[in-house]
Design goal:
With 363 residues, chain A is α/β, with parallel strands linked by helices. Chain A is 31% helix and 28% strand.
Chain lengths: 363, 363, 363, 363
Amino acid sequence: MGTNGRMINVGLVGYGYWGPNLLRNLVASPGCNVMAVCDSSRERLALAKERFPTLSTVTEYEELLSLDSLDAVVIATPIFTHYSLAKKALAAGKHTFVEKPIATSGREALDLLDSAERQRLTLMVGHTFLYSPPVNKVKELIDSGELGDICYVASSRVNLGIHQPDVSVIWDLAPHDFSIIFFWLGEEPSKVSASGRAFVQKGLHDVAFIDLDFPSGVVAHVQDSWLSPSKRRQMTVVGSRKMVIYDDTNLEEQVRIFDKGVAYIDDPDCFGKHQLTYRTGDITTPRLEPLEPLAVELAHFVDCVRTGARPKTDGFHGLGVVRALEAAQQSISNGGGKKVVQPLNLDNVLADTIALTEDLSHV
Amino acid sequence: MGTNGRMINVGLVGYGYWGPNLLRNLVASPGCNVMAVCDSSRERLALAKERFPTLSTVTEYEELLSLDSLDAVVIATPIFTHYSLAKKALAAGKHTFVEKPIATSGREALDLLDSAERQRLTLMVGHTFLYSPPVNKVKELIDSGELGDICYVASSRVNLGIHQPDVSVIWDLAPHDFSIIFFWLGEEPSKVSASGRAFVQKGLHDVAFIDLDFPSGVVAHVQDSWLSPSKRRQMTVVGSRKMVIYDDTNLEEQVRIFDKGVAYIDDPDCFGKHQLTYRTGDITTPRLEPLEPLAVELAHFVDCVRTGARPKTDGFHGLGVVRALEAAQQSISNGGGKKVVQPLNLDNVLADTIALTEDLSHV
Amino acid sequence: MGTNGRMINVGLVGYGYWGPNLLRNLVASPGCNVMAVCDSSRERLALAKERFPTLSTVTEYEELLSLDSLDAVVIATPIFTHYSLAKKALAAGKHTFVEKPIATSGREALDLLDSAERQRLTLMVGHTFLYSPPVNKVKELIDSGELGDICYVASSRVNLGIHQPDVSVIWDLAPHDFSIIFFWLGEEPSKVSASGRAFVQKGLHDVAFIDLDFPSGVVAHVQDSWLSPSKRRQMTVVGSRKMVIYDDTNLEEQVRIFDKGVAYIDDPDCFGKHQLTYRTGDITTPRLEPLEPLAVELAHFVDCVRTGARPKTDGFHGLGVVRALEAAQQSISNGGGKKVVQPLNLDNVLADTIALTEDLSHV
Amino acid sequence: MGTNGRMINVGLVGYGYWGPNLLRNLVASPGCNVMAVCDSSRERLALAKERFPTLSTVTEYEELLSLDSLDAVVIATPIFTHYSLAKKALAAGKHTFVEKPIATSGREALDLLDSAERQRLTLMVGHTFLYSPPVNKVKELIDSGELGDICYVASSRVNLGIHQPDVSVIWDLAPHDFSIIFFWLGEEPSKVSASGRAFVQKGLHDVAFIDLDFPSGVVAHVQDSWLSPSKRRQMTVVGSRKMVIYDDTNLEEQVRIFDKGVAYIDDPDCFGKHQLTYRTGDITTPRLEPLEPLAVELAHFVDCVRTGARPKTDGFHGLGVVRALEAAQQSISNGGGKKVVQPLNLDNVLADTIALTEDLSHV
């Protein structure tokens, strides 16, 4: 269900650190009219009005939702409020965009998904990287078979700061890694484990090393840290035919393709035997379009609301990320054991809720 | 027991890939006379004689060991032969240098250690990095307190190739990481786990992600791979006061010290509360002496044999590395569970053998 | 003469590519009230009003200058208009800030300088780099003697584009290099030569190699290009005691100090003789304050107008840069001969105009 | 004239810094027998014998030349001796390989060339870079037209040390730049100028900035220095269709091809007018064969001697480099004026000698 293509009316919820970026892009988005911005702080709202003087502002969320002609909300508030705000928006019949992660547990995410599906409302999560040119380039390379069979993905997302006061580094940084990796591989992990250390704040890990096993046999490794001397945003994909490094900090060369690999050749000295040989070819940096991912993402949301199309980062994607985050957090809190992430029977998703994760050691 | 300072007679065992480097350095080592080189291949021995025409060569190990005036042997043969060759050398009363890792199991390593200790013979393992200027510089920074409390160590040792036909990447590359990390921290891990993938050769992992927990609370993470698009030899040490990156591929700047950290300051808005602040100061690349680690290592061996001093990389160090390798290999083979590495009661080492590792899940 | 510290009224002239940056910083500058923005394009003015709704706008420069309470103008228009606009502003008794370069010839620059000096008005040129932390850090290192005697400065300022339609790469990029180098060395060149090639546009060089000789004996070399595969903004200062690389594209490490040098030592083999030895010490990246140079620059202009202080990048500095640009352009147009830049007798500057550059071959 | 393909007998002259590399490669070169090594120092000869015990050695050059069966000499002695040693070798009827530069003046180089041509002897100069895979790759890219029309070449060859006691940095480093550039462009410069500074040693420039104008209109710029904080060996070739960076210190990626350029397009707003547009495509690092240039070079010499083929780096190439060096040195010594390098009338080369360079100011 969409709006049959008419211009849509959107309300922005939350004008803190990230809200101004969303507002700027929503205002510039064709097909979208920003009806109002909602924030509990009048000071923050004053900043929004200074920037866009004709903008309406409200301090009460209920007031925003009660606007009859409002089609959709865009939620950019602290993580722990995502579920209740999105739940109310869906209950009020509004299409809903929530910043990542969609909720703080699989159970909450599933409930939002259930609400949206029942009412045929658009539910989209702000996993912005999936709208960036380098991430989509790597997806193309994988799907076209150019990389061959995928062996593993390794990701490093480290720098100094900024410590969150209420969640570990896993909930802060791993949503990016997980979203990108699940998108690339087209699957969600069957097992997750994590170890690390809570050094600065008691009980909140500031460094995490996460292992993911996928049903296909592919493995992934994620290193997230708020305690590291230099910024690093690098993901490596190793395939049987080619390998890729995606470095988000190297703006000139975000994606590099290495025509390298290992192959078996017949052993010339011994009939019937094989030996390994290493192949090294060209390295290519493909040209990428200079698009702003956030603009693409919001245009996609507006488009999905208008046409009823399913978003690329829909509730199922958001749910998959949250379930893996939950499993990783349980593992690191318990000292590193592997967690099985039960496959969801999507036929049953709308029928009833299910237990989402279970300790491997109990299986 | 040493040789009271007289020149010592050394035999080199194995003239394969690494042997020529050892021979060149032994010949140039003061206080050391190379009596003979032993290799089962006459072709390899011919190469040695071409380089050093006056050198004696033998094809039988027993013949080498039977030389009365031989003081010591230097063993550079395939890993699976280390134990038996070293065992025979010690039995023949020869001081023994073995390339890393010292053996293929903790039990073997302990047996060699026991033999050497009982006979007061020098037993040294070729963990060469511990004789390199950058590794020693980082050790100094840690021991002097300049880095503050250590939070974690992360190591990446990846490139394309060379697959070993009989051992996993753990036994091939992790000896370097483990030896360096244990030396820096002055302790051995209490728990080890590893995951990864055996992609090219069935049953032999070519990529491994290893977690190490230390008694002090420090954690370490090691990423080793034979399947990676570009070479990386980088170790990061994060302390509460400063952080260090040691990059072995950046010859101009192997060690970089970052005067960065996180600190608590009094929250000006709220008495009795604190908030985090990030400190960023200078980055320094200290000048390092251009020493060849292998030359330093062999000179140290000769010196220990002559004076009876205990080597920096003695049998205990070699044993600690092998026990951790064994635990990591068991973990990766079993799918990633944590292994407890039991502390050795060193008083009992010479009395009897003990079980070295035990599955965490059985505790 | 200043405004005795009261808040000053400023008019911005030109709201094209650079104007919005100036406006944003002027609005945020303490002690400064933006009275009006002047641009001949109503569309551009509409953009300014959209951003700052309460702003006054005018399309006629004369209208702006006729505002009685206007203290100062900030001129950000195409280069060839700088002289006439600044001349009118000074004639109207307004303090004047002109974007770099101050004018298109030494004669024009000198005339502006003369006007400003006679009326005791502030005349400042927008050589923004002189307000940036890395450039000031290098200045400190030179002035403190830490680098020793300066041997040479080499600068590369190259990338692909953007070709100017009316001036060569010398007038577009070299103002930055010249301004920085003259500031660092505290002197202006006595000889200038340049060669290069006009490849894309007939008669307008897109690549230039410029040599500068200074009275002290120091030499400088500048490479400027609009035709280069990758962006480079790097300056090297070589001193007898230390060397510095300032890389403006490496945001994490803009200034790096190399404790390297050459020294004479007594030759141990030959009394009374000396031999060269190379010294290599630490490399240090000093921490720099994260200041925005443009904000610092405009605050400085406001401060100079209010207090009557002489700006760091005053008319004399702007004149020195323009004279060297003029000499470089003459040299490259004539095929590379050296131009002598006659020293100005500053006592006579206000008395009469002088010939500013003369061909070396005529001397 | 060659040796009709039989194995040739070679004598190596000079066993100093570079000699051991030549000897090692000559010994391994098929078709080549090293008859003797000649050096005035018995200590150096002892080192050669230690390495190759069966080698003959002589201290007198005349003794070497008097060996009847000697076909060729390879000369690796200080620059100022090249001419006289090569002259004697050619007079004795020996094919001659001389390390770069072939001589210390154009007049000497021409004389050697004349001797070799008259006697139909092979004369080759050790411009080793012309046998390296990256330099040949760039040549291919230029000759195939892939880069389009060449606009300019810029080269940086800088590091700290090693100062030569008798020649400037131009004679030490520029032979590499000149040889490579002339090979790439297929032409020699018509004008040369150089400036710089003699900082450490009086009268001997340790930093030089050299401009070269070619008959085709291409320009080149070379920066050579013994006084620089970090090593740089980088050459940029800018063409109208693509651009290349050859970085000799980046072993993994010596050649990088940038599919970038500027093009004119019709101006949509103005019929008959054009505007510039910048094109940015992929960046490619082609795979290069891991050949050792010195081995390729010496094999080529042996092959030319045996077959009578003309070497790639023959006497004409060596002469061209020396003439440009001579012009650059004259220019820098005289303060930077342009020198015209007169075209040689090759028909007359063997007839009589000619004046090789002449001051531009006298033309």
